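Researcher: Please translate sequence to structure tokens.
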Amino acid sequence: LETCKTNLPAKGKWGLLITLVSLASDLWQGTTINQKGEKSPIYYSHEIGLMTEKEYISTQGTDL
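Model: Translation complete:
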């Protein structure tokens, strides 16, 4: 993980790594933790990009 961080443009100062798990052919899910320690799912689709849970829910019923 540290080796990967050193290869990031700002050495991980302004970006972060999120482990994603494949849910479908074009949908990945990860978990973020805010400063209060609360967990929140995050989703990634090659077609749409990075989405919050609220954004992901709004895509339901589409051809995501």
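Researcher: Any highlights?
Model: The mean pLDDT is 88.
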